[in-house]
């Protein structure tokens, strides 16, 4: 409990307007300080504040020397006169035993403060502690109210009220420890979450490696199975190769023996053949000589008879033409006979139709007589008269109606024809479209097949040659990537960037990316969307953006709310959101931009940024019309020396607001590094990309090339490719023709549809007119034929006419049909009769006759020429006879030679067959050996251990992967044969091969081999799909160890987090209790005090109350103060009148003072805004406090209604002679009337 006491007097020396040493007082329990403006009343307030330790800046000065009295023009700096002091004489102790306690604060010549108590110099802490014992809290200023504080209290924001109560309660002393413990708690929780996520990640990694381990075990089983099947596959081939080789060896031995016997017989026959051949050569030479003479004679004969040759050629030509004419004549004769038959058939059919027409006319007369369709003469006359009369009346209508009907019939027929044609065209169009679609699909499919086949062919052709090139390229790529990776590491090191990014930043970025995926309206962070045009602007731009630098730009407020909920659910943290749709921004001042154009460096910040136009609104909201300057001086000039101040920022980051407030400092460069972090982030992405590519290159270098079956596959693909290209060309031609035809049909359909639309519209319009006209005609006819209709026995004349008309129509249609048939047959008969086939046949016969005559004349000419040749021929015949005799001799010898040759050829043929058979056997054996050799090579390459394969044999297996030049081919083939024959000595153990596979017939070997290959392919396919991690077991064990370590770390972090939370909760509770103790006291008393200040005879007073914005942590949020004057509706305190706000503020001040009351309360002109009515109420309340609560009140006032009710007056005046303030004191206790209460 603070000690009680009061101010007895104030002693000052050279303080402000008080010159020399002066004593002010004594002060009573309720003293009023009065005096004219400028006399020094507030300086008395400052003296009390000064001696009680209030800071200089709150005393209307910037430094202590400003508080020292001096006459204008005096120069006392550093002299003895440059000192001042204020001394407060404080009475404390029980009444009657009061003791003086002197508090003194002095301004030394050095310009510093010196504190003393009862003349003893003490430190400020000791001085302050002594004041606190009396309830005088300097920091909270619970003992005084400066001029204007009442208005400031009334206008304080909720947060400012909270800060005031924190200061009063002392909970602000706990804020630093509270923030530290809160930070420790958050860090511990983040560490716990981090370790939890780490444990979760390692658990997932463990699960992954467990699956990989199981997959690796399955893969190893498949590898074992693959080796067993592969061994069986190899042994099967080796066994049957050896079996076939053994069989072929026996056949070769027998064939060689037979070949030796044939060679011996052939040598004997060849000797006989040579002797006979020499005799035949002499006879043949003689024949050749005679042939030469004969040919010479024949050449001479041909030179003498060119006309004979010409005639012979002419005969050949005419003969050929004659044969062609005879064929044509036969064909035309057949056409002529067919024409005569057609004419006879048409004449017969025409007679039959004419007979049908005659029979129909007879039937007509018979039916008309039976059905009485013909009227009697009287009836007919009556009918004609009535018809004539009706006709006269309806003639104009009928004439118009007939025209309409005729036109309607023509249009209907045209419409029907057009509709039928349209249906045909549409069906044709549909068919063509389907056909075109089929051709397009076929064209695309064939083209696809061609592309695929060409691609596959190129792939097969290039694969073998490209393997080494690919490896070389991969190696070069690896070196290049390593160099690039090293360069990136150097850049990261230069940027002094920690490779391990902050976990909170990583989580926030991940959350941002997730929000972009989930909510389409999320655009991104401002720092990622905006970039300065040059590095020199980084600091300035980051300062201007401020907290908006990390703000997230979204399309509207709804998206922002969804993102905020998402961040809360994910517990990632908080963020500022800028919804573009609801941002209110001022446009850019174009006039300002034009004015800045003349400056060298001054530019609008927004003009220095690069960003997408869609976020311009957000950027303008963040930077506004802020101006950038290179220097601080230029920034100050633009900010202060203009009629309208500007918000400016300098290159070094100093921001000058329009209010004149300047901000900046050494820490502003930290945010600017965000731009560098963007660059670093790009380097990290490149680094990760190069590492991934490096791994891919490593896998490429470890790849195994394929070298088999390329040639045969390429040839097969080429054949398919040729067929596809032929098919493609045919399909393209068909597609082009079909598309052209479809387009033509579509154009015709469009024309027809337009025509049909016009016809339909005309027919529908005409139909109504026809119906109206017909109805009018029927009315007239019914009136004319009423009596006639009754006589004939019909309802109306139209029944009779329709029946008769139907019969007439039937007759007409039948006659028309028969007439059309007769006309058609007559036209066909006329056509056949007019077709002149006979004339053409006669002309052809005449040409044949002429050719035969010409042929006879030529034959006569040839006979004449032949006679002339006979003489020459006799000589020729003699030579022929001699030649023939020589030929006979040659032929005789030839016969004998042929017999010998036949026998020799038989022997040669047998030997050739035997050679061929042996060659085939050897070729087959070479192929078998080569197959066996390739199998050995494959076994060595694939590391297949064959049972009992000798090491020596294995080492001697040569490689055939060598290409020999053409001139060395024969030698190379021999080398290969010798190499493969050596492998005959290799013995394999086939005991592991099943008997079933050993006894497979030769024709079944291919099928069994294919089955084993398919089985291997199935296993290989399964292995390729698996892609196992063969180190998964090691990784699994390593991850298990890491998981145990992480779980321990997680438990430790959770324990630390729990302890930090408990410490924070204790401090939070302490701060809460401290704050709420003061708040609850003030809240409980505020209404009572306000009622006392507003009470009157007609009303108990107004209502005042406080509300916490956050009851859980009130010191972090605002306090809402509401006051409702008597007989007034509730409204915010800002909407009250000046006097009402002053009374409300005084109520709050007195309530705050009541929590930790100081023994005295000094108030400076708190009644300035009050009327006399309210002043009386305030005075009444102060007197009640003075009398009931033992409180001393010292009030500075200019209103007599206030100070007239005080216990004493302290008058302040201006001593004009001494140019300083002076004081006088008057006690009013001897004047009771001045303190008489008024009743309100």
From TrEMBL:
GO CC, any one term: nucleus
Residues in SMC hinge domain copies: 520-639
Q: What keywords does the record list, in alphabetical order?
A: Cell cycle, Cell division, Chromosome, Coiled coil, Mitosis, Nucleus
Q: Which SMART domains match?
A: SMC_hinge
Query: Gene3D superfamilies this protein is in?
Result: 1.20.1060.20, 3.30.70.1620, P-loop containing nucleotide triphosphate hydrolases
> Nucleus as a keyword?
yes
**Coiled-coil regions listed:** 171-279, 1036-1070
What SUPFAM superfamilies does its record include?
Answer: P-loop containing nucleoside triphosphate hydrolases, Smc hinge domain
Q: Does the keyword Nucleus apply?
A: yes
- UniProt family annotation: Belongs to the SMC family. SMC1 subfamily.
Protein name as annotated: Structural maintenance of chromosomes protein
């Amino acid at each position: 409990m603070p000690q009680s006491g009061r101010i007895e007097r104030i002693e000052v020396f050279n303080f402000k307007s008080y010159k020399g040493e002066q004593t002010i007082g004594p002060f009573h329990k309720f003293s009023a300080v009065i005096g004219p403006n400028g006399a020094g009343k507030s300086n008395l307030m400052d003296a009390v504040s000064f001696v009680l330790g209030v800071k200089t800046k709150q005393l209307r000065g910037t430094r202590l020397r400003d508080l020292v009295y001096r006459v204008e023009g005096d120069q006392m700096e550093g002299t003895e006169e440059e000192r001042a002091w204020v001394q407060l004489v404080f009475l404390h102790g029980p009444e009657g035993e009061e003791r003086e306690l002197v508090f003194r604060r002095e301004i030394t010549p050095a310009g510093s403060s010196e504190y003393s108590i009862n003349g003893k110099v003490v430190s400020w802490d000791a001085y302050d502690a002594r004041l606190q014992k009396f309830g005088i809290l300097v920091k909270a200023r619970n003992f005084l109210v400066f001029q204007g504080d009442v208005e400031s209290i009334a206008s304080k924001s909720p947060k400012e009220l909270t800060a005031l109560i924190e200061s009063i309660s002392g909970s602000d002393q706990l804020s630093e420890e509270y923030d530290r413990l809160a930070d420790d708690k958050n860090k511990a929780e983040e560490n716990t979450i981090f370790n939890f996520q780490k444990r979760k990640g390692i658990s997932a990694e463990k699960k992954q490696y467990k699956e990989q381990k199981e997959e690796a075990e399955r893969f190893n089983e498949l590898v074992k199975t693959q080796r067993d099947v592969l061994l069986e596959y190899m042994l099967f081939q080796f066994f049957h190769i050896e079996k076939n080789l053994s069989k072929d060896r026996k056949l070769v031995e027998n064939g060689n023996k037979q070949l030796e016997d044939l060679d011996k017989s052939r040598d004997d026959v060849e000797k006989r053949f040579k002797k006979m051949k020499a005799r035949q050569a002499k006879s043949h030479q003689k024949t050749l000589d005679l042939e030469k003479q004969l040919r010479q004679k024949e050449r001479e004969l041909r030179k003498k008879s060119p006309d004979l040759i010409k005639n012979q050629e002419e005969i050949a030509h005419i003969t050929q033409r004659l044969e062609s004419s005879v064929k044509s004549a036969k064909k035309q004769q057949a056409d002529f006979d067919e024409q005569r038959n057609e004419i006879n058939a048409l004449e017969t059919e025409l007679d039959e139709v004419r007979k049908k027409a005659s029979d129909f006319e007879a039937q007509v007369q018979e039916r008309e007589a039976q059905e009485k369709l013909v009227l009697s003469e009287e009836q007919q006359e009556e009918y004609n008269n009535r018809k004539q009369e009706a006709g006269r009346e309806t003639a104009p209508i009928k004439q118009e109606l007939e025209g309409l009907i005729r036109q309607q019939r023509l249009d209907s027929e045209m419409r029907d024809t057009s509709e039928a044609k349209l249906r045909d065209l549409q069906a044709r169009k549909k068919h063509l479209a389907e056909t075109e679609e089929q051709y397009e699909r076929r064209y695309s499919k064939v083209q696809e097949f061609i592309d695929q086949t060409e691609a596959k062919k190129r792939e097969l052709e290039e694969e073998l040659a490209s393997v080494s090139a690919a490896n070389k390229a991969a190696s070069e790529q690896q070196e290049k990537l390593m160099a690039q990776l090293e360069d990136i590491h150097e850049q990261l090191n230069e940027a002094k960037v920690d490779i391990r990014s902050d976990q909170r930043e990583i989580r926030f970025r991940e959350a941002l990316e997730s929000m972009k995926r989930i909510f389409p309206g999320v655009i991104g962070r401002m720092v990622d969307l905006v970039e300065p045009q040059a590095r020199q602007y980084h600091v300035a731009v980051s300062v201007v953006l401020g907290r908006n630098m990390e703000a997230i730009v979204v399309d509207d407020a709804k998206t922002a709310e969804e993102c905020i909920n998402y961040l809360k659910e994910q517990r990632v943290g908080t963020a500022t959101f800028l919804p573009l749709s609801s941002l209110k921004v001022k446009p850019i001042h174009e006039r300002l931009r034009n004015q800045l154009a003349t400056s060298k460096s001054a530019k609008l910040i927004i003009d220095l940024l690069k960003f997408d136009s869609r976020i311009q609104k957000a950027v303008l909201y963040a930077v506004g019309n802020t101006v950038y300057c290179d220097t601080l001086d230029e920034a100050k000039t633009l900010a202060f020396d203009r009629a309208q101040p500007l918000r400016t920022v300098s290159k070094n980051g100093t921001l000058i607001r329009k209010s004149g407030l300047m901000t900046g400092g050494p820490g502003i460069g930290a945010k600017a590094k965000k731009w560098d972090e963007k660059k670093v982030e790009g380097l990290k992405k490149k680094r990760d990309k190069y590492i991934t590519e490096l791994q891919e290159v490593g896998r490429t270098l470890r790849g195994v090339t394929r070298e088999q079956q390329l040639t045969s596959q390429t040839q097969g693909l080429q054949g398919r490719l040729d067929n596809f290209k032929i098919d493609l060309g045919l399909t393209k031609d068909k597609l082009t023709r079909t598309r052209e035809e479809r387009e033509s049909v579509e154009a015709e359909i469009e024309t027809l549809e337009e025509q049909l639309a016009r016809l339909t519209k005309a027919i529908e319009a005409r139909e109504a007119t026809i119906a109206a006209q017909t109805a009018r005609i029927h009315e007239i006819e019914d009136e004319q034929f009423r009596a006639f209709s009754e006589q004939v026995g019909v309802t109306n004349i139209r029944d009779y006419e329709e029946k008769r008309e139907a019969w007439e129509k039937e007759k007409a249609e039948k006659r028309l049909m028969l007439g059309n048939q007769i006309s058609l047959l007559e036209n066909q008969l006329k056509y056949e009769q007019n077709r002149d086939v006979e004339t053409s046949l006669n002309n052809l016969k005449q040409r044949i006759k002429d050719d035969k005559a010409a042929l006879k004349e030529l034959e006569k000419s040839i006979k004449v020429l032949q006679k002339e040749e006979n003489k020459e021929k006799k000589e020729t015949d003699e030579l022929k006879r001699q030649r023939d005799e020589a030929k006979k001799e040659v032929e005789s010898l030839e016969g004998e030679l042929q017999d010998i040759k036949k026998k020799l050829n038989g022997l040669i043929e047998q030997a050739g067959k035997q050679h061929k058979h042996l060659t085939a056997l050897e070729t087959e054996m070479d192929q078998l050996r080569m197959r066996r050799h390739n199998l050995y090579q494959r076994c060595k390459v694939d590391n297949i251990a064959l049972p009992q394969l000798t090491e020596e044999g294995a080492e001697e297996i040569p490689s055939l992967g060598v290409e020999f030049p053409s001139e060395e081919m024969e030698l190379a083939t021999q080398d290969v044969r010798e190499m493969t024959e050596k492998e005959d000595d290799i013995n394999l153990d086939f005991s592991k091969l099943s008997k079933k596979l050993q006894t497979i017939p030769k024709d079944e070997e291919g099928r069994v081999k294919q089955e084993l290959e398919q089985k291997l392919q199935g296993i290989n396919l399964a292995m390729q799909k698996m892609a196992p991690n063969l180190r998964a077991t090691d990784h699994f064990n390593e991850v298990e160890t890491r998981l145990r370590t992480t779980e321990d770390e997680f438990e430790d972090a959770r324990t630390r987090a729990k302890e930090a939370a408990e410490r924070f909760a204790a401090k939070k509770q302490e701060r809460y209790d401290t704050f709420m103790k003061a708040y609850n006291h003030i809240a409980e008393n505020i209404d009572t005090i306000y009622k006392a200040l507003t009470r009157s005879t007609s009303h108990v007073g107004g209502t005042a109350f406080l509300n916490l914005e956050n009851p859980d942590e009130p010191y972090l949020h605002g306090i809402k103060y509401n006051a409702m004057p008597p007989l007034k509706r509730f409204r915010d305190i800002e909407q009250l009148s000046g006097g009402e706000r002053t009374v409300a503020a005084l109520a709050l001040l007195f309530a705050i003072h009541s929590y930790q009351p100081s023994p005295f309360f000094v108030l400076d002109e708190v009644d300035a805004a009050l009327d006399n009515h309210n002043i009386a109420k305030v005075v009444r309340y102060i007197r009640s406090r003075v009398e009931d609560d033992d409180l001393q009140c010292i009030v500075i006032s200019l209103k007599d209604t206030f100070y007239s009710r005080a216990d004493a007056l302290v008058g302040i005046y201006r001593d004009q002679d001494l140019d300083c303030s002076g004081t006088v004191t008057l006690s009013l206790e001897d004047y009771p009337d001045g303190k008489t209460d008024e009743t309100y």
